[in-house]
Specification:
The protein has 214 residues and is of the alpha/beta class. The protein contains seven helices and seven strands; from the N terminus they run H-H-H-E-H-E-H-E-E-H-E-H-E-E. It starts with 10 loop residues before the first helix and ends with a strand.
């Protein structure tokens, strides 16, 4: 059953990123990453989820919230050839841009909270930047969206997934960002997703990444 528009408050986040694309174009600023070097650091942390598997053959990966496919560009720059990349984005504008840039890749423009039928399974799913900004949503609204989406996405991976959120251990918090305590994430994952997870906060940004395994 489709969600009513009144419950789709997360579309405000999509609108924000589309406004960044319109203003800054196909750049790191166009997906609202302030510094390119920090964006690359995030890509490396996401890539670390699948690195052990890459030594054993071809790996299927879904870049959930792919934006302009900058993660795929990072993969190409690193010379990785045994990663079978697919992208998904809720924004039709970002999907159109990614398809134009990389027509050989599979791209899905779907709202997974509406329809799961169009999305196959992948070995790994990364969600880089999907949950770092909440924009006009309250914390409770964003946390509900986060939980519902993580549970849906986890059904579509066979080995593991990764996502990042903003840390609570900062000098100050921005009201438009999604700062989440470790304990809150751990409790949710343990109760509703998987007990097999790892927190990473070792890459010198004001956020942390969580790897969740089957």
């Amino acid at each position: 059953m489709s969600l009513s528009k009144s419950k789709k408050n997360y579309l405000a986040i999509v609108s924000h990123y589309e406004s960044c694309l319109e203003r800054y174009g196909d750049t790191h600023l166009g997906v609202d990453w302030p510094k390119k070097e920090d964006a690359d650091r995030r890509y490396e942390v996401m890539l670390a989820l699948v690195r052990p598997a890459l030594s054993h053959g071809v790996v299927d990966l879904l870049d959930f919230g792919c934006g302009a496919s900058h993660f795929y560009e990072y993969i190409l720059r690193r010379g990785i050839t045994n990663l079978r990349y697919s992208g998904l984005d809720l924004s039709t504008k970002f999907c159109a841009l990614s398809r134009k840039k990389f027509p050989a890749n599979n791209y899905y423009c779907v709202d997974l909270l509406d329809d799961t039928s169009a999305l196959p399974q992948f070995e790994y799913v990364i969600m880089n930047g999907v949950f770092t900004e909440k924009q006009t949503l309250s914390f409770d609204e964003m946390f509900l969206y986060f939980k519902r989406l993580v549970k849906k996405v986890f059904l579509h991976c066979t080995r593991g997934m990764a996502f990042n959120v903003m840390s609570k251990h900062v000098d100050w918090e921005r009201q438009d960002l999604f700062h989440v305590p470790f304990d809150l994430i751990a409790e949710f994952l343990t109760r509703e997703v998987s007990r097999e997870f790892v927190f990473r906060s070792d890459y010198r940004l004001y956020e942390y990444t969580t790897y969740v395994y089957k």
